[in-house]
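Okay, can you check this protein?
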Amino acid sequence: MEFRRLFDSIYFQLENYPQPDAICAKENGDWIKYSTQNVINIINQLSSALLAYGIKADDKVALISNNRPEWNFVDFAVQQIGAVLVPIYPTITESDYLFIFNDASIKLAFVSDWNLYTKISNIKSQVTSLQDIYTFNKLEGAKYWRELLEKATPAWQQEVDTIKNNIDPATLSTIIYTSGTTGTPKGVMLSHNNIVSNVKAVQPILPVNNTHRSLSFLPLCHIFEKVVFFYYTYVGVSIYYAESIETIGDNLKEVKPHFFSCVPRLLEKVYGKIVGKGMELTGFKKKLFFWAMDLGNQWDPQIDKGLIYNFQLAIANKLIFSKWREALGGNVLGIVTGSAALQPRLCRIFSAANIPVREGYGQTETSPVVSFNRFENHNCYVGSIGIPIPGVNVKIDETTNEILVKGPNVMMGYYNRPDLTAAVIDKNGYLHTGDVGEWVNGKFLKITDRLKELFKTSGGKYVAPQVIENKIKEFNLVEQLMVVGADRNFVSALIVPNYINLEEYCKNNGLDTSSKKAMISHEKVLHTYKKAIDELNIKFAKWEQLKKFELLEDEWSVDTGELTPTMKVKRKTVLEKYKKLIEKMYVGSEFVEHEIYTSA
């Protein structure tokens, strides 16, 4: 069996290393495990049923659900008959669903629960192409997905076999709609070959195999985790789905995974909790904890620190960092992050703790991997996005410093939008990513900012907000922030405190912790933030330094609208939401040191 189309991956697994726990999920407190053969039996039955239902080549099928085996069953089944899967985030609005369903002419939809069933039912009358909605959970009044399987027959299975054997790798496999942070969502068209080429390119350089387990919790509707799934399937890694974001800690201890992918935001939260626990310690234990943390922050894969450092780090690993590894299940060999910039200190300290964290880079339009830091130390550079993967050509535009990408992973184009496709893919086949970058040591790619996010102060100086934000987030009392200052005479920031650490700080200093508002109102707290920011400001040119900051009471989230489903800040949304506050910041003297904003 050759791996040429996405659905070939599960048959390749069966032929080479069939797993008793190919795909697993928890149901009613127990882990339900589907073997490789179980998966194949179900997807063939579902493919047959879809043909009997009337789904044919190029028909669009929507899938809106949390991560679960049924998600994969539908994905495989749709691919095998030449139809096109349109995975959609469960967290977007009805108006976004309406746009996507009409834009893609969705014929059939699969959803997980009552909330999503209600949302899609509400727009059904406005989507003329939509015939039915099936649910993964059994819901009264809704069509249960297993009812569809009753349509499967041996005759339809023969038709499935004929169709799948003749599917060209260049065929459109999926349309993935972008988060829509800057307007109407765009449908990225990816072929089987786009994604398969990406999987094959990383296979020799990612240290996982058929003896390993992974815990999956990033949304499968995002290209990052979708490709991770096919990679795991291809190399035989057993996949376990976390019950929810809230249960990840427990699931890690149960599954004891060897590998997982995540976004920096999750690592930031884990790190914040670790530091918070360290601050609760007293005496020698507290000194030992922060001694180990300091050693971790010195870790550098490009520099041999010598015998004394390595000996000290070994002690820190035995006494302190071993507890971190236990909390992750005790078996973690590596973590890959993507979607947003990773704070360098997180790469350093987790890697020093023998929990190697490596940052990668890509976009939905590149299927998605363009580059990543390898797990061998000499091929990892902290603060970079690593080395381009085999077969992908990367260059930096000489005029704009924009990162340009060319290779078999570059998308087919934007669905129904040839104008937008022509705007980002030039005549030489290079995708213009919109990211500004540079080469480090002639080998490692580094992002310096987004072209669209660069802004100019009223003094004519360009500012790269992402660079400043990543540095300020090194302060352990900062959870989230966004730098502002376009067309202003100085740069400032909106800051959401890390309230776990801030509460501990307030307790240690005898300050009121009765509410978030109370904590961010203390002069001592404000002085601490100012002092930390002043120290970090030294790293920047004068026009880049933060002159003012705002402490916000409410955390930003997907539900409240400030973050995309991949945890990126929606800058336009935040600017609009805090418009009056930002305007107030710039009224009067630039030497005002701080403001406080609460929801009260």
In short: Residues 589-600 have pLDDT under 50 and may be disordered. Residues 60 and 572 are 31 Å apart (CA to CA).
